[in-house]
Structures are given as C-alpha cells and as structure tokens.
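FAQ

Q: What does a record look like?
A: Structure on top, sequence underneath. For example:
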C-alpha cells in the first residue's frame, strides 16, 4: 500500500506539472514593464497580490503559477508577492532586474494633444476614470489563453517602454506597441475574450478593450472605426475594427497595449517570436 501511495503521489505531481506546461505561459522577463512567473505550492488555489493589486493565478493543486505584470516605474531589486491561502499569508520574494529603454522624440501638429486646454482637461479627467475602470477589470476565468496573435498586419514602428518627448516636452513612457499600417487595415482580437469597453477618447481616439480573464486586458487605440459592440464575445482573429488616425497620432497606426494586474506590460512577451 505504501508503494502504491508513493506512485499515486508521484503521478499527481507529474499531472500537475503537465497542466502548468500546457498553459503555454508568456515569456518571462523580470524587468520593469515585464512579467514575473512565480511558483506557488499550495493544495488549494490561492489568491495573490502585488502592490495590493490582485494577480492572475493559474495551474493546478500544488503547482500554481502567479503571473505578475511589473510596472514600468517599478524599482529594481527585491519585491514581494503576497499569497493568501486558507487565512495564511505568505510572502514570495523575487528580484527585478534593470532595463534601459530608448528615447523617442515626436512632433505633434495638434498642439492641444500635447498641452490640452481647460475644456480638454475636463474631458481627459472624466475619460481617465472610465479607462482606469476598464484596465482594472477582473473576471474569474480558468481558461486564459496566452497564445496571442498579432492584431494587425504591418511593421512595429514604436516599441513598448520608450521614453517619450512630445514637441520636446517629456511625457509618460510608451505603454504599448505601435504597428504601422495604412488607414483601413483590419484589426483583429489578439485572443478570445469579452469586449468590456468601447469609446472615443481624447488621447487614445477610437478604442476597444477586451477582457481575457483574471486581469488580462488588451487595448486597441486610434481606430478609424469600431466594428464591435460592448458585451460581445470574440475569438482570436475576429475583426474588431480598422486602423485609423484618431486621438494623438503622427500617422496611421494601431497602438496595442497588454494589461496585466492593472499594469501595462510588453506585448511582445505574449507573441511567438517572428
């Protein structure tokens, strides 16, 4: 009986490991703007938090994986993931390495898109709350897909994380990946999910947010038009709109962001290497 029990336990851990491997997790890059993947060995599924923001946890008993989005503004060095399970709190430490992002200088012809007037600011403040709600959306989903597809055909024009200057004025780092494409180019969902927000925003222009579950959100900006409605379910490759020049732009392109635990991370970590 003892040998049988050992074999059953061994089989249990092998199956658990296979379950996690089958997830095809995104590429780990433990740097600001990247992703950390932390193993958690609890029997029941725990809840995990980074800077008080809930973190995605996937896998199976005794072999869970916390998938953490690291802010671009995060300090390097030791950080802590807080894990809660059956009333017990455990700290998991991990190290964030440094990464230096390049600088980009852009000239924006519409000066109000760089220095908004009072009326613009009222709109921006109202929109900021709506956008923040979409980025922090949480839906329990045990079947999160990380097999993303590129959402538009075209070359990458501005990578994620660039230190940006608009008309020589410093602004926040680039929070997405730009894909250069002619106006009217089809935009498709990068993965299956639910449309949780559509809107026309001051900086982002025509925008769509797709919820993929457990705090994983994709955002598509500057669209010519939106061909999908809020609440709709989509599959990877479904058309959601077309490339445009709406919002703050210097030319036609798709700005594509990936958000994880309310943190924008490098979209390339979710794509197969080309």
């Amino acid at each position: 009986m003892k040998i049988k029990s050992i074999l059953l336990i061994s089989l249990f851990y092998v199956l658990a490991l296979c379950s996690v491997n089958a997830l095809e997790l995104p590429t780990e890059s433990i740097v600001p703007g990247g992703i950390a993947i932390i193993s958690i060995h609890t029997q029941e599924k725990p809840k995990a938090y980074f800077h008080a923001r809930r973190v995605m946890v996937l896998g199976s008993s005794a072999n869970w994986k916390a998938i953490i989005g690291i802010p671009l503004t995060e300090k390097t060095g030791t950080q802590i993931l807080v894990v809660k399970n059956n009333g017990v709190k455990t700290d998991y430490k991990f190290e964030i390495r440094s990464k230096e992002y390049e600088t980009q200088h852009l000239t924006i012809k519409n000066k109000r898109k760089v220095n908004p007037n009072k009326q613009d600011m009222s709109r921006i403040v109202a929109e900021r709350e709506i956008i923040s709600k979409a980025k922090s959306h949480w839906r329990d989903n045990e079947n999160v897909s990380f097999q993303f597809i590129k959402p538009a055909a075209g070359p990458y024009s501005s990578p994620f994380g660039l230190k940006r200057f608009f008309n020589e004025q410093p602004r926040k780092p680039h929070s997405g990946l730009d894909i250069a494409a002619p106006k009217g180019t089809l935009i498709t969902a990068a993965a299956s999910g639910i449309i949780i927000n559509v809107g026309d925003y001051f900086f982002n222009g025509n925008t769509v947010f797709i919820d993929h579950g457990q705090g994983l959100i994709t955002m598509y900006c500057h669209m010519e038009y939106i061909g999908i409605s809020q609440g709709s379910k989509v599959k990877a490759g479904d058309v959601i709109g077309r490339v445009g020049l709406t919002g703050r732009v210097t030319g036609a392109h798709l700005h594509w962001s990936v958000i994880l635990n309310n943190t924008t991370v490098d979209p390339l970590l979710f794509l197969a290497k080309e």
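Q: Is there anything notable about this one?
A: Helices lie at 2-21, 118-135.
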